[in-house]
Amino acid sequence: MRVHTGEKPYTCDHCGKSFTIKGHLKEHMNIHTREKVYSCDQCGKAFLWASYLNTHLRVHTKEKPHSCNLCGKSFSRLQHLKEHQKIHTGVREYMCFECEKTFTSAKHLKLHERIHTGEKPYKCSHCEKRFSDSSSRKKHERIHTGEKPYKYPDCDKKFSHSTQLKRHEIIHTGEKPFTCDQCGKSFGLKGNFMVHMRVHTGEKPFTCDQCGKSFTQLSHLKGHMNIHTGEKPYSCD
C-alpha cells in the first residue's frame, strides 16, 4: 500500500532520506558506513550493494543478459551494450583536440587524453609506480598481493587479469571470432584484432611528445621513449 500512499516510515539518521521498506534503508546505510557486506563466494570480492555483487557474479557465470538487436553481441552490463551500439550508429561525439581522434564516451576520451598529458593520477599502494587509470593500477597491485580472481571452470586454473583468462579460454575452445575483412586473418582477442587493423588503416595513435614520431602500439612508443630518456631497461647478465 505504501506504493500508493507514498508513505516512507524508514528514515536515515545521517542524511534524512526516507524509504518505504526497511531493507532499502539498510542497504542505503552502506553509503555512509562504506561497509561492504555483500561478498562473492567465488573470489571473495566484497561490494557495498547487492546489485553490484549480482553484476560482478557475471564475471564467473559468463552471463550476458544484454544483447545488441543489430548484431547479436551480448554484454554483462547494460552500459556496455549502450556504448557498443554507438559502433552501429556511428555516433562518436567526444573528440580529442590534440589529435582529433573521436570516442563514443567521455570516459574513453579522458583516458586517451592522458597519453598526451602524461597524467598518471593513480599510485600503487605498494610501490612508487603510477598509472593513468584506476583499472591499470588495480591489475598492477595484484603483482604485490598475488590475487587471482579469475578462474577457468574446466581446469581450475586462476588468473590475475580477465584478459589472461580470455587468452587461456582460447586454448580450450580454439575460438577466433574476430576476422579481418581486409586479409581474412582471425583473432581470439578483440585487442589483438584492433592492433592488427592498424596495418591496413595506417593508424598510429601513440605519438612521442619529444619528436612527434607515431606508433601503432603503446609498447612501441614506450620502447622508443628510451632513446630520449637514455634508459636501458634490459641489461646483459
TrEMBL record:
GO biological process: regulation of gene expression
Entry coiled-coil feature ranges: none
UniProt cross-references to PANTHER family, sorted A to Z: GASTRULA ZINC FINGER PROTEIN XLCGF49.1-LIKE-RELATED, PR DOMAIN ZINC FINGER PROTEIN
Pfam families per record: zf-C2H2 (PF00096)
The organism of origin for this protein: Cyprinus carpio (Common carp)
Localization: Nucleus
C2H2-type domain mapped to chain residues: 10-37, 38-65, 66-93, 94-121, 122-149, 150-177, 178-205, 206-233
A single GO molecular function term of this UniProt record: DNA binding
Keywords carried by this UniProt record: DNA-binding, Metal-binding, Nucleus, Repeat, Zinc, Zinc-finger
Protein name as annotated: Zinc finger protein 665-like
Family classification: Belongs to the krueppel C2H2-type zinc-finger protein family.
PROSITE patterns reported for this sequence: ZINC_FINGER_C2H2_1, ZINC_FINGER_C2H2_2
InterPro entries hit by this protein: Zinc_finger, Znf_C2H2_type
Key word Magnesium present: no
Gene Ontology annotations for the cellular component aspect, listed alphabetically: nucleus
